[in-house]
Amino acid sequence: MITSPTSKRVKTSPPLIGTHNGHFHADEALAVYLLRLLPAYSPSTLLRTRDPALLSTCHTVVDVGGEYDSAQNRYDHHQRTFNTTFLGRHTKLSSAGLVYLHFGKAIIAQRTGLSPDHADTDILWRKLYDEFIEAIDANDNGIPVYPPNDTATLTKRFNDAGITLSSLVSDLNNDFSISAPPTDALETATTNGTAPSRRPQDEEDARFLAASDLMGTSFLRKLHGYHTAWLPARATVLAAYESRSEVEPRGRILLFREPTPWKDHLYTFESSTSSSSSGGGKAEAPQVLYVLYPESADAGAKWRIQAVPKGKDSFESRKALPEAWRGLRDEELSAKAGVEGCVFVHASGFIGGNASEKGVREMARMAVEM
């Protein structure tokens, strides 16, 4: 049985959390951390075992036991009959997804100060599942990112499997720097009255806690970013999107007065506009091609022009900056473009810069027509 380093003893017995011992994965590591974010579970001890008799003594069990019953605080997903998914998604949940499904809004409310039934809590709850939890669910359930038929003829240019969180958790199962003493050595140490070395299970439990911290702190960083930057930007992007025709008559240029995380929101608003247009028989509005914004909130900051990618995870632009500008800088670029104050255009054409708002607007006005 193991406890978090920050756990405190309380007079009433805290709820005992159970999960399996042996090889651990990202999903139960995160599930345990998520539970401990809640006040009721923060002082909880953790029991890692596959013994049904011992698991039956636990208040809450995740990723083991062959049972999903939220009323009994049982959150396993390995049984053949299990097919639970998150709202509006198709990926079967893992233990992390199950805990998040039931406790996610309470956790978000606890960390942000929002009420559990606030509209923003729901937005963050869904966003964190889409962008973080679902991939953990899919990985643990062996669900590929792409349908196998779509990738049958594709070959990776390089191996990126080693940089995922699931891979880093897996690495913690193989800490070869730890050499567990044989059982007779432990018995001898106890008989002689000396402090015995830690048991192999203790070492494994310590590595599990490291994995749990890795997953949990990653989750909290995501939550913090979405709450403090992404969510407030939603209103800013919507205002810019609705007024885009004031920047360029056909609405192909978006302008911000300060640096803003715009990509996710832009695709959402465009999709919504496209759906409403097709339903009402209206002509579909042109896509936004370029986004303009200052490099910082400081007065006199230089400005950027960024080409909108074809998709959120794409490196290909809808319309890259003109080929004749690419790779040029300063006076040479200004002379080529016929625009004063040019600073640079990236060799791939996905981004460029100008010393002023007026200059970057002129670059965008020319680029949409070239």
Structure in a nutshell:
The protein is of the alpha/beta class and 370 residues long. Helices cover 41% and strands 10% of the residues. It is built from 10 helices and 11 strands.
Structure report:
The chain is an alpha/beta fold. A 6-stranded mixed beta sheet has the order 1-3-2-4-6-5. About 5% of the residues have low confidence. The termini are far apart. It has 10 helices and 11 strands.
List keywords for this structure.
370 residues; alpha/beta; six-stranded mixed beta sheet; 41% helix
Summarize the helices and strands and which ones pair or pack.
Layout: E1 2-3, E2 17-19, H1 26-36, E3 45-48, H2 52-55, E4 60-62, E5 68-69, E6 74-75, H3 95-112, H4 119-140, H5 165-171, H6 183-191, H7 200-242, E7 253-255, H8 263-280, E8 290-294, E9 303-307, H9 330-337, E10 342-345, E11 351-354, H10 357-369
Parallel strand pairs: 2-3, 2-4, 4-6, 7-8
Antiparallel strand pairs: 1-3, 5-6, 8-9, 9-11, 10-11
Helix pairs in contact: 1-3, 1-7, 3-4, 4-7
Unreliable runs: 4-10, 178-195
Largest sheet: 6 strands, mixed
Q: Can you tell me the overall shape?
A: elongated
Strand line-up in the sheet with most strands? 1-3-2-4-6-5
Quote the average pLDDT.
90
Please report the total strand number as a whole number. 11
Helix content: 40-55%
State Rg. Answer: 27 Å
Q: How many helices?
A: 10
Order of helices and strands: EEHEHEEEHHHHHEHEEHEEH
**Class derived from helix and strand content:** alpha/beta
Q: What distance lies between the first and last C-alpha atoms, to the nearest angstrom?
A: 67 Å
Strand percentage: 5-15%
